[in-house]
Amino acid sequence: MLKWVAQVILSGLMALGLQPAALAQDTLVQLATRAGVTTSYWWMPRDGAVATVLLFSGGGGGIGLKDGVPQSGNFLIRSRDAFAKAALNVALVGNPSDAIKLTPAFRQSPEHLADIRATVEDIQKRSNVPVWLVGTSQGTLSAAANSVALGTSIAGLVLTSTVTGRQFGGSVADIALEQILVPVLIFQHKRDACRLTPAYAAERLIGRLERAPFKKYVEVDGGADPTGDPCEAFHFHGFIGMESQAVEQIVQWIRKPGN
């Protein structure tokens, strides 16, 4: 009887295109990152991974953990399986215990940098493949600021829907991009209508990446059926309807920076 039940469950998972072994590995990791503060990340290790992507969601951050799994609609969070299927380890950055929501200022603070440094170090103990920071929307502040702080201890940086417009707490344009020492991909949607993330302003950042060994600006135009606020995840700002294509292009850069 138990064997039959197990076979039914296995068949159901396979019908959904899910690999039970991979699912069993995915877990929430909690770290003590500062005195009295813990930070969590959702860890998705994959056999044969060629790199790890540390994904920073937009808005107030976090992964939308519910019923034991991430359920945020953020572009990067909802696309996590596509990254994992491309032979990458995936880590989704959660919020620290002392910040329910991340502000733009906090994303560039010493406290946030300490949390992410500890997270990267923990990931590097789990897997010795290169670590890339990938941010979207407000998450680009976290990814860019931490790329400056971490130097060559990370392998590269990807910014999608980059925040360049003026807002309280600053934008990526205010970060010392000249100090980044790793390859950088800036990935934008041509029809992103969010006032904080215009494509033309993101393209201008390329000229400031003076010390990046490779740098590239990519502007895409695809997807369908945008809904809601143009600054939210289910509009072109969040690559709606073209998530798999966006991930594929990002992964190609991660595998071969400079191409």
Question: Could you write a compact summary of the structure shown?
Answer:
By secondary structure, this protein is an alpha/beta fold.
Rounded to an integer, what's the Rg over CA atoms? 18 Å
State the end-to-end CA separation: 54 Å
Q: Which blocks of ≥5 consecutive residues have pLDDT under 50? A: 1-24
Q: Which sheet architecture does the biggest sheet show?
A: 8 strands, mixed
User: What structural category characterises the helix and strand content?
Assistant: alpha/beta
Numbering strands along the chain, what is their spatial order in the largest sheet? 1-2-6-3-7-8-9-10
Which percent band covers the strand fraction? 15-25%
Question: How many DSSP H or I helices?
Answer: 8
Overall body shape: globular
- Average pLDDT confidence is 92
Into which percent range does the helicity of residues fall? 25-40%
Query: Quick one: how many beta strands?
Result: 10
Order of helices and strands: HHEEEEEHHEHEHEEHEH
Give a written overview of the molecule.
Helices cover 30% and strands 22% of the residues. The protein is an alpha/beta fold and 259 residues long. Helix 5 (110-126) packs across helix 6. It is globular and about 40 Å long. The relative contact order is 0.13. Mean pLDDT is 92; it is low at 1-24.
